[in-house]
Prior knowledge:
Elements lengths: L10 H38 L17 E3 L7 E3 L15 E6 L4 H9 L14 E3 L5 E3 L5 E3 L7 E3 L2 E3 L15 E6 L17 H14 L6 E3 H4 L13 H10 L3 H4 L3
Parallel strand pairs: 1-5, 3-9, 3-10, 4-9
Antiparallel strand pairs: 2-6, 4-5, 7-8
Helix pairs in contact: 3-5
The structure holds zinc ion.
Amino acid sequence: MQNIKPMRPISPFLSQLQSQFLRQLQFQTQRTLGAIALACATCALLLWLGINPHRAGANPLPQPPHIVAWASPTHYAERVKQDIYGAPARNPFIVVIHETVGSARSAVHLFQAPDYTKNGNQVSYHALIRLDGTIIYTVPFQYRAFGAANSVFMGINGPESVQTNPQVPGSVNNFAYHFSLETPPDGRNNADTHSGYTVAQYRSLAWLVGFTQVPQSRITYHKTVDRTHSRKDPRSFDQSYFFNLLSSNRPSRFSTRS
Ligand SMILES: [Zn+2]
């Protein structure tokens, strides 16, 4: 009689294969869900910042690196729909360009320290641009940053300013995006000039301004809108270089609006 060896049971092998397949499937599913969640989070962040990601195609410059470091809510407020006299506040947006004078890091620390005093020390920008071109978002664009107290913008139809507090003079803050360039180390003083900003900073600023779609005629400087005659910023700003960069990187439909 032939000795028949018992067949090796196949089920454990199949079972092992099945569990390997299920593990792989679970891993792939987790990875896909992770990618979807990351994409959703990025879109939500940009929308929260007031930036429409679908407009990215309108801006040919590559998106610069960015980080988010929110200011304390004591340093910004809602944009108002009417001034203290009840007049509608419907000014189109402007961009106000600043420089930090100190380091970007110290500006962010200042904005993040809550300040509940009523003495008008609160200060903020919507975004800072570091020397390496990194954008630091500090105030969501839909809010009123406190970048230029006692200020006025000379528009084509006359002076523009919105008073939001009877104790404080009017300002451009209600309709402004405030962007500030980090000052180079040789400018961290009260001198009238310094060595200027980096190419990376100009490119990031052009990208940021491109996103806002504010026309060139409504791009201004802190020293221009300031009514206290105490502001000099941004010092050593190369206006022609910036506007050349801005217009050459804007689609023609935007250039014609400026
Ligand atoms: Zn300023």
